[in-house]
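Consortium newsletter contribution from the modelling node. Members have asked for a concrete example of what our holo predictions look like. Here is one, prepared for the DGJ complex that several groups have been discussing at recent meetings.
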Amino acid sequence: MTIYVDKNLFHLQTRNSSYLFQIMANGELGQLYYGHRIHHKSAYHNLAQREQHDAMASWTLDQPDFQPEMLKQEYASLGKGDFRYPAYQVQAPDGSRISELVYQDYQITQGKQRLPHLPSTFANDPQTAQTLSITLMDAVTHLQVQLNYTIFPKFDVLIRSAAFKNQGIHSLMLKQAASCQLDLPDAHYDWLQFSGAWARECQLQRHHLHCGQQATSSLRGASSHQANPAMILARPDTTENTGEAIGFNLIYSGNFANQIDVDQFQTTRIITGINPEDFTWQLKPQSSFQTPEAVISYTNQGLNHLSQQLGAFYQQHLVNQHFAQQLRPILINNWEATYFDFDETKLLKICRQAQKIGIELFVLDDGWFGQRDDDTTSLGDWFVNQRKFPHGIDHFAQKVHDLGLQFGLWFEPEMISQASRLYQQHPDWVVGAPHRHLTPSRNQFVLDMTRTDVVQYLYEQISAIIEQTHLDYIKWDMNRNLTEIYSTQLPPVQQQEFNHRYILGVYHLYELLTTKFPQVLFESCASGGGRFDLGMMYYAPQAWVSDNTDAITRLKIQYGTSYNYPLAMMGAHISAVPNDQTGRITPLATRAAVAYFGDLGYELDITKLSSPELQTLKKQIQFYKKYRQLFQFGKFYRLLSPFAGDPNLVSWQVVNSQQTVAIVGYYRILNEPNPPYRRLYLQGLDPNRIYQINDLEENFYGDELMHAGLFIPRLLHSTMHVEQTADFNAQLFLLRALS
Ligand code: DGJ
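And here is the predicted structure:
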């Protein structure tokens, strides 16, 4: 890993990638290259060259061949002859929006500092990262911008962000501040994005780039179910196992925009960061604004490799290191078992049963506090519901702990119900604009997290409960998006700072709680995957992928999520049938075979199960415990996609780092009469090792399984186990190396 600086040139070289930019003739920065690692030279004239075109703006009369629109820029502004979308925009006191960010100097530091107030990457060992900071200055407004780039020797990952500082004597208005801009010399890419909806998150869409704008974004105050901040550009012939791809993501949980602009010359500009829509930030003299970090990653070895590289990177440089390598507990959550209808006695029955079959953590979900018996009341009243827990929540927690189980609680800290004590005391804490009605969603309203008194109140309330209960785990839910954006605490000129300040308030509360209680495992949740992003991952090492627990629709959700997030982040539960979201009846074995690939949990009333069913659960738990390291931290390979090819067949695989154990999940959604002949080609095995698969008599070389494949017989009714049905079938192949 090296950062080369040669006069006007900056070359960030990782193991397999090169990122190059230079200072252009006008003093601004120009992008040169991002892709497979290339040798370092002192200049790359060829990479900077563009032909002069007629009818194009030039920089000055005596520089007719310096045409901003023809150049690849590093952090572009609008209004000086480059008509593509800009990375930033700043309004001066006179109302003008022109900036010229001219190069001042650079600094290289060993390591990577965390950002204050924002979730960010870090390097606990400074030898594992190198950071380049470039300082730019606009001479008229005295706006200083620092572009930061960090590379990590073990990973082909680049972290970018920008810091704005007003060095002048007048206030400036920041109207846009992207985390990253990348100009690529062609548009020969497919765009992979992960749109969705509640209960249908992360549905991969793959389209060829076309001329003009294409984007995913959120204006919901959260990264959202509808669009995920991650996206990938892959060459059209890139597959899971071959070819070039560039991954992008944001360490951010609020409104974001990922814009792609393919211009008239078929070059591509990517801009990622805070959504400029409904955003401004007042930069008073000497004040600063720091953008969230953007993650960029390159591979020429296909999409599986991209995901693996990102997942391993996050474990080392983003996730709370206390939990990064720690095996995640098998939990049981009472939500789908009881919804709001429970009391201490009912829950303790579940806990006793759970303990007997090997479950490790009991999570008490919504409904334990205030007067909450449905979703119309009590959010904000974080004290125990006396009717359900007459002896107090600490007493109940003690009972759970006495059983040898860990204890977890659900909170929805950011929310308030009108029917609550908190609302009576602090109606002014609710987000809303004066003289406007408040839009409810799930019967609830949002607390103004931009206020320090609100954050402090929540910190105190939640801390008290954690201390009283010796809590081991928190599920932090967030079940609605923001409306009537307004804070009574902000002056009119700063109202468009609200969305960003809101999420900074959320981060601050997370920071306070995770610092005070480092041993508490947080799982983030926003009606499932409504805030499944890297900002959350920094504080909460795991997240609830989706409220949808149906094994069949989960295949797509987990498959889509796996492109950008590691298995250890993905909470996956086995629930009852008919499934509460889809009404589908799937075999217990299939539900398990899907939920194993992540952080396993149960979400059903196990006191209602038959004794053979309980025995099955016990075996599942024993099996998962044996291979938990693999399921949570193994190398994950997508083999057969539900989004391409035959959507009836889905398959994925995990392999341990020594390539001695692997588990393959193979899912056949509907059984087919007289099906085609099928072989499954495995990945990531040692070609020279011999593997035993389940109880098959024949053994196989790794190369054989990867290149010749494993024959998958058709599903005949006569050969099926008792509990199998012909449809919704799952098979697990356990591979163990014999040599
Ligand atoms: C939405 C979550 O995703 C569910 O798991 C559950 O916690 C409910 N909220 C509780 O209200």
